[in-house]
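This is your field. Have a critical look at the following sequence-structure pair:

***
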Amino acid sequence: MASVITPPDRTLKPRRTAWDRWSDRGFVGLTAIASLSIAVVLGALVILIAVRAWPAIRAEGLGFWVGRAWNPVAGREAFGVLPLLWGTVMSSAMALAIAIPLGLGTAIFLSEPLVPGWVRSLLGLLVELLAAIPSVVYGFWGLRVLVPLMLPWGQAIHAAWGWVPLFSTSPLGPGLLPAALVLAIMVVPMIAAISRDALLALPLDLRLAARSVGSSRWEAIAQVFIPAAATSIGGGILLALGRALGETMAIALLIGNVPQISPSIFAPASAIASTLANQFAAAKDLHIAALMYAALVLLLLTLAVNLAAMSLMARPSGGGQGARPWRQRPWQMVWCRPGVRRGCDRAMTWLYGLATLLTVLPLGAILLDVGRRGSRRLDLALFTQLPPAFGLSGGGIAHALLGSLVVVGLASLITIPLGILAGLYLAELSPHHPIAQGLRLGVNVLSGVPSILAGVFAYGLLVVNGVVGFSAIAGAVALAVLMLPWVVRTTDDALRQVPDELRWAAASVGASPLQSLIHILLPAALPGITTGILLAIARAAGETAPLLFTALNSDFFPKNLVEPVATLSVLIYNFAIAPFPAQQDLAWAAALVLIAAILLLNLIARWLSRKTTAGTP
């Protein structure tokens, strides 16, 4: 006798207790509170800097913006931010003038099938690793390697062309040009990565249409692909500009730190961020307020640039609607000849390859110099001993290694749970609510805040009030402000990439939102979330500026969390400017250890990201 199978009653719902309902509501409330921390941190940062700057705002007024003198000497105090603005804007503009053609050429070379795929992958990896090197290492390398190499060339140019205002100053060392060159090396990876993604995102139909009408590869790129991706490319350039405006440590080591306005690219100058880094620790009263006023100017400048970049990149690319039909101009008539067009394509291919080579060449030079000079001190004493007194040899960096682990570990304990909870709220619990959209904007804005302003915020919140003073806790809070947007954004992105079928399957078996998140969605998104956490830790480990006036420095092992503590990045900065060879050797060794740790974290993050993309978490 055939058995009769009764279909399940799909109207039945699993019984949920009051505890289940309250736990769901409590979890939603917890994630909402965590997500609001983004707005709280951003608002508190702006308000605190403005309040601390108020004495200088009241004393200097709008004249601060056009004042040409910056003199912090007591009794003769005069504060005008115009020389600092000049150095900030000019170094950034010169850097972009170098970085834009290199970055765009690299992006084209990596997005077009000009070389085998494995070569493009390797070059792309090298460009990404170039962005991972800490800024203090760039500055140290520029000060000890690049500046001595440039000095004879600069003096020869000045001797021949000194009558030109651009070369009117004889180079004596650090100045505007070496600062701009190193700054260009630092922002090229950002322009290249964003431009490459924009070009790869163009529809295949657009590429086929451009080639089907007889355009050569160069004509298609110049007349169709770049105009179609111009919005995203322009946004990437603006983001690079915001990064350049807020750069601190490389500029502090290379720009010369002389607050003056000079047309010469060889003259020393000063920037807002470098002035904050160099003068904050010794400032008092009105000087502190003036530095806070300068920090407010830098904050407004970078916020304006980053908001413009985000609004530009938020515009739809239009799938090629921005690309106008190719119109022949008189000077382009010669391109129509087949032989000339083939030669032009070959020349442009070599030009793109040269741009890519010039982009990745500094990575090899930096790794070679740091590896060669830092390996001289790779011994057991380096990892177990304290540094010697100035002028003596030997010693190690054990206290800075331990201090870095403590400060970055504390920052991670603050950031990781807070960032994951906020990302859960934005991605799953309220993804389309206007508040969530505003918080996403806040995450993007906070990620563009210069790192030194996070240190200024922690200084005004914890140090100057005597809450904890210069300490590991203050340094951890400053680093947490920088890490938070990275963790939130990657958690949000990783959860939104989880297929909707998993959500539907969880709902079909009666899983609550909390059960679905914990048992299904979070495990699926774990590789992407882990990638964001590793990248955030790598960024925090390489930061120097926020720690200069929060964790400060120490010559001893950390004893507790409420005292100044040494870190690797600050040790590199202090020993880089020391006149003693023993301390400089320790700085090279510390730079090698720091680069190795950060590159390892980035390689692990890239591996996890590739696993996630391949769908094998």
